[in-house]
Amino acid sequence: MGWFKRSKNNISSDSQKLDIPDGHWIKCNECGEIVHKKQLEQNLWVCPKCDYHFRIGSNEYISILLDDGSFKELDKKMRSADPLEFEDTKKYIDRIEATIKKTGLNDAVKTGLGKINGRKVSFAVMDFRFIGGSMGSVVGEKIARAIDKAYELKIPMIIVSQSGGARMMEGAYSLMQMAKTSARLARLSDAKIPYISVLADPTTGGITASYAMLGDFNIAEPKALIGFAGPRVIRETIGKDLPKGFQRSEFLLEHGFVDVIVHRKDLKSKISKILNLIS
């Protein structure tokens, strides 16, 4: 004789399945809270429970940091070529086409002119959705031109970095962008024109080794991953466990690599205050 008998109607036929549309709810990577997408947007893509800063795209940063309707994009149609005819799991040129189609972006950075609380600035913002926000020839050239525009108009330069580093599919062409952008920023510094660097999650590799860390003020978002090589690579190289929070914004602030950590909701006002103080 069995220990129990299964009920024929163990699930009520009167119960109704909740119809929750896909993509309307998002799980926080930090605390696991389930947040409605609309609520998250209204909170600037920051978890209302634990303050975790979600990764956001270039359009979101433009709407958060710049005055409404003030952004005028430059060099919008510039696209990467394939000078090395690179191929890994797929041809680089095919990867570029697929990413353009998927994201609606022509490359991993948007540049242009805009206003922050009425003050005109030259503005560049990277987008991690485009091949991990990697820096190829187009990214370097567009940022260099944006810096040139700041120099020409004698207006502040703002760059929001969010990148996995240099784009390996372009080899040395990508690495050359580090020197090009750094040289442009040196000229900007000589002219006493302010440059503010905003470091979002993640800012790594050749971006960290060039323009991301060259700001007159380096501002980081909370708990952003910032470094050259990733924590896993460093751990495997030195064969030791890394300090808690290693390469996060708070660790870098403690060790003098960034000037201030700013919550996303305060980012625009903080940049505006800094510009008023230094220029």
Walk me through what this model shows:
- By secondary structure, the chain is α/β, with parallel strands linked by helices.
- It has two domains: 21-54, no CATH class; 56-278, 2-enoyl-CoA Hydratase, Chain A, domain 1.
- It has eight helices and nine strands.
- The strands form two sheets. The chain has a seven-stranded mixed β-sheet with strand order 3-4-5-6-7-8-9, with helices on both faces. It has a two-stranded antiparallel sheet with strand order 1-2.
- α4 links the parallel β5 and β6.
- The longest helix has 20 residues, at 171-190.
- Mean pLDDT is 92; it is low at 11-21.
Key features?
279 residues, alpha/beta, 2-enoyl-CoA Hydratase, Chain A, domain 1, 7-stranded mixed beta sheet, two-stranded antiparallel sheet, 8 helices, 32% helix, 17% strand, globular
Provide a quick synopsis of the model:
The chain is α/β, with parallel strands linked by helices.
Average predicted confidence as pLDDT: 92
Let me know the largest β-sheet: 7 strands, mixed
The strand count comes to: 9
- Identify the CATH class of the largest domain: Alpha Beta
Structural class by secondary-structure content = alpha/beta
| CATH topology annotation of the largest domain | 2-enoyl-CoA Hydratase, Chain A, domain 1
Kindly, what is the distance between the CA atoms of the first and last residues, rounded to a whole number of angstroms?
Answer: 87 Å
Strand-residue proportion: 15-25%
Number of continuous helical runs:
8
What order do the strands of the largest sheet run in, or round the barrel if closed? 3-4-5-6-7-8-9
Overall body shape? globular
Residues in helix, %: 25-40%
Rounded to an integer, what's the Rg over CA atoms? 22 Å
How many structural units, i.e. domains? 2
Reported CATH architecture of the largest domain: Alpha-Beta Complex
Low-confidence spans: 11-21
- Relevant CATH superfamily of the largest domain: 2-enoyl-CoA Hydratase, Chain A, domain 1
Reading the helices and strands in chain order gives: EEHHEHEEHEHEEHHEH
